[in-house]
Design a protein that fits this description.
The chain is mostly helical. It contains 15 helices and 2 strands.
Length: about 350
């Protein structure tokens, strides 16, 4: 009797039971070679992305090598003159134009974008939040060349007549020390300020989307704990939501900055494409993408073409550095929050 009870209560080995259960749950493809095929496929696709990025950088470097050999890496980077006829090429004017326009765009877009993200996630009614999100997604889907055409014929002339010219006349009469900064000859139709404003408008949807996703990922328990302490709605945002979502928001801002660094068509159509230093805010300028797209088809001299490829290589490096910086800052903030 006792032996029967023992036999009835003694469980089968766990491994055998688990294998039987998995055999019933998993589809047949995962019981045989399909698992290995799927793993290899994922590995190959992941490696392809890495090799694609590395291949892009290596090809740009090799194509720009004649210019690096002719001028040197550092001299080409900090060279202030760009004259293809005289075979003088320096990337510094375009690097300055890219940095100034991108940082200016982020400065203009940052606070409105984060404010919109907070509003649609925490305060807006659902119907209004859906409408705002749909509008922002639609704005992000508009091709940059369409935005550039609209800005050329509508935005830039209005900005010049009703904003830039009044500022210039006031500075001319009351603050002459500003003239070297904004431009002593008055604002041109295509200028650095107009292109920066349009660039800010174009990156707002990306910044809002990334900040919105970061806020959405904050656990509900964070908010409920703040509510339990008697916090107001803004105090909940200040104490519980924003500190937790800060890493995602900052990473999103840096990725939006990387997006601004590489924007081409709209900026090339508005910035005026001047390769001379110093730039003025109300005068024409140039960026790294704009000089590439404007001069690539006209580059008949080999050194001119390789110099454009070298500019593209430096733009690639700047973009990669920005992406690594976003990842590093995000990890540091997450680690600090965990401590």
């Amino acid at each position: 009797m006792s032996s029967d009870i023992t036999a009835m209560t003694t469980p089968e080995p766990a491994s055998h039971g688990n294998e039987a259960a998995l055999g019933k749950i998993l589809p047949p493809i995962y019981r045989g070679p399909g698992d290995r095929v799927f793993k290899i496929l994922i590995l190959v696709m992941s490696a392809a992305i890495i090799f694609l990025a590395l291949g892009t950088g290596i090809i740009l470097w090799l194509e720009g090598m004649p210019s690096f050999q002719a001028y040197g890496y550092w001299d080409f980077l900090v060279g202030t003159q760009w004259d293809p006829i005289a075979k003088i090429h320096g990337a510094w004017p375009f690097i300055i134009g890219t940095i100034v326009s991108s940082l200016g765009a982020i400065a203009l877009a940052l606070i409105p974008a984060i404010a919109v993200a907070i509003f649609v996630t925490e305060f807006a009614p659902k119907w209004l939040a859906n409408f705002i999100n749909y509008t922002l997604d639609l704005l992000a889907a508009i091709p940059s060349v369409v935005i550039g055409l609209w800005a050329i014929f509508n935005f830039a002339p209005i900005i010049r007549e009703f904003i830039l010219f009044p500022i210039f006349r006031w500075a001319e009469a009351n603050a002459t020390w500003l003239l070297p900064i904004i431009g002593p000859d008055g604002p041109s139709v295509y200028n650095l300020v107009s292109s920066t404003i349009i660039l800010a408008l174009m990156i707002v949807p990306y910044t809002v989307a990334l900040a919105r996703d970061a806020i959405h990922l904050v656990p509900r328990e964070q908010r409920e704990a703040a509510w339990a302490l008697g916090a107001t709605r803004w105090e909940v945002m200040e104490m519980a939501v924003l500190p937790y979502a800060s890493s995602g928001i900052i990473a999103g801002v840096l990725l939006s900055l990387a997006r601004a660094l590489g924007e081409t068509m709209a900026v090339a159509m508005l910035i005026g494409n001047s390769n001379r230093l110093p730039f003025t805010l109300f005068g024409p300028a140039a960026t790294m993408p704009s000089v590439i797209i404007n001069e690539f088809r006209e580059a008949v001299e080999p050194l001119h073409l390789t110099s454009l490829m070298a500019v593209g290589f430096y733009l690639f490096l700047i973009t990669i550095i920005m992406n690594f910086a976003a990842t590093f800052i995000q990890k540091r903030l997450i680690k600090g929050r965990a401590l």
